[in-house]
Design goal:
By secondary structure, the protein is mostly beta strands. The protein folds into 4 domains: 76 residues, Thrombin, subunit H (Beta Barrel), CATH 2.40.10; 102 residues; 85 residues, Sandwich (Immunoglobulin-like), CATH 2.60.40; 65 residues, no CATH class. It has 2 helices and 30 strands. The longest helix is centred in the N-terminal third of the chain and has 7 residues.
Length: 351
Amino acid sequence: MKKTIDEMIDFFLFDKGEDVLLNNIGYKAVVLDANEKINRDNDKIIHCKVEIKTGDIVEYCGRKYIITSQIDNNENSLCGRMKQCGYSIAFNFAGNVKWFHVLIETKVMDIETNQYMSLASGSIKVSLQDNADSRDIAITSRFLNTGRAWKVNGIDKASLGLIILTCDMDIIEASDDLNSEIANRWQYELTHTYVLSIENGTSMNVSLNDIAQLNISVTDNGIVMNPLPALTYMSSDSSLLAVDNTGKLMGINSGTATVTCQMTYENTIQSTIDITVVEVFTHVYTIGITGSTTVKLGMSKSYVAQFYDNGIEVFDKQAIWTIRNQDGSTSPAYATITASTGNSVTIKGNS
């Protein structure tokens, strides 16, 4: 005689059992597909030895499920049917936002024909766990989902452990936060407008193997935030330029990298700066003078100075000419500068 799962539950839990979270508590359970064919509902049958109830939330393989059937209490185990929660929706209770794992359906089963029938256009049915939080949901309560607003127009608590909401599409209000899908959020919360600025400009240089500091300012609705909020820094090429979590930069190799600074918990608020790592250049200047080494008494000679930086002639330097005797003295003066233009000079021997 073929034995049932209930009769062999201990073996199945040991051999085939999988980790699940039942209302956020870990257990072993046997989870089977509810249908031989894959369907859009992804229903599962759960077998376990702990108490389960209609409306319980089960986390299995990283997905949330809600037990929708009545529980089959066998001699050794409990068994129920669960459906995958396709969405999490938020209800805003006068500024106290609470999230719920839910089933959203656009069709319902006709108990007479045993066939699905479509709800009216713009209407949905939402099933969720019956608990202290969900019991606060009232007629006209609103929520956002998939870019649309919905309003509750019916609440059915006839199914033990479940609350079933009938909802109609609603208009989107100015206080709705579509990005976070929280209805009427800005009715109870201050709208924040952040601006993050890098005070160093749009670009700057950092010397190779040297350190520089980024200066950041953040305003909220035009008011400077002090202290700064949590910030995250990123370098587009860490092989050229390193940046730490305080905005301190260090040049590693020559080249240009882009540094992004963003608010850690509002990462769309950001600014960038291009950083060029430049090699440190040491100037070694030398001067060459062309012209005769002697000047006869009463005669004049011209001389030209050339400037070199590390042996390469440069043309942005200006000569300042003076005359001294070989012993460093200036008196008596054996020669006089009679003309000086740019890097050229004319010297006359005194008679």
